[in-house]
Amino acid sequence: MHKLWLAAATTALFLSMPREARATDFYVEGSVSGGGSTWGADPNVQGALRTGFEFVDIVSVDLQARLGYSAVDERLIEMVGIGTKLALPFETVIPHVRLHAIHFHEMPIAGMSEDPAMHVLGVGDGIRHRFGFEGALGLSYVFAVVDRTRFLAQAEAYVDAFPDDGKGPVVYGGAGLGLGLQYDI
């Protein structure tokens, strides 16, 4: 019990430390991740791009896109999402939690040969369209500040869940590393 009280007091003291709050930041982040799914032996690798606006260093409106490859059925996987990110407003190390509503595409690479551009855009033949949710926990480290721009290294773990088990894996999960920048507007 004593350790729990000490941890709570230390956290409260740390959170109450003064910090200059910025009104709004624009940010962009890129990452590479690896993971798996509830289909056995289904490793995947993905690249992601995320952008958004952060308000008062805590709440963000977030858009993201991921493109990747998964082993079972040798398929291309694509995801677009919109949601929110909540961050603790620390100066150098910034933990966050993120929740997104996502639209997901899965398609066999072999079926893309006739019209690859339309498949990447999500309108080709044989695409499985799915809706789900993504939750993530992450940590950013501010390694440089130039004028109004902060440069960050990031690590994040995510889980994607889908209610429709007939079209593909019910759950994807993984972790990634990335770089980002925030610009104080």
Quick tags:
single chain, Porin, mainly beta
List the helices and strands and how they pair.
Elements: H1 2-15, E1 24-37, E2 44-55, E3 59-70, E4 75-87, E5 93-108, H2 116-120, E6 128-146, E7 149-161, E8 171-184
Antiparallel strand pairs: 1-2, 1-8, 2-3, 3-4, 4-5, 5-6, 6-7, 7-8
Second-tier CATH architecture:
Beta Barrel
Based on Cα principal axes, name the global outline.
globular
At the fold tier of CATH, the topology name is Porin
Q: Tell me the fraction of residues in β-strands, as a range.
A: over 45%
If you average the pLDDT, what whole number results? Answer: 88
**What's the main sheet like?**
8 strands, antiparallel, barrel
Numbering strands along the chain, what is their spatial order in the largest sheet?
Answer: 1-2-3-4-5-6-7-8
Which range best describes the helical content: under 10%, 10-25%, 25-40%, 40-55%, 55-70% or over 70%? 10-25%
Total helix count? Answer: 2
Work out the radius of gyration.
19 Å
Protein described:
The chain has 185 residues and is mostly beta strands. The protein has a single domain, classed as Porin, CATH 2.40.160. It has helices at 2-15, 116-120, and strands at residues 24-37, 44-55, 59-70, 75-87, 93-108, 128-146, 149-161, 171-184. The protein has an eight-stranded antiparallel barrel with strand order 1-2-3-4-5-6-7-8. The longest helix is centred in the N-terminal third of the chain and has 14 residues, at 2-15. It starts with a helix and ends with a strand.
Give a brief description:
The chain is mainly β. It has helices spanning 2-15, 116-120; strands at residues 24-37, 44-55, 59-70, 75-87, 93-108, 128-146, 149-161, 171-184. It contains two helices and eight strands.
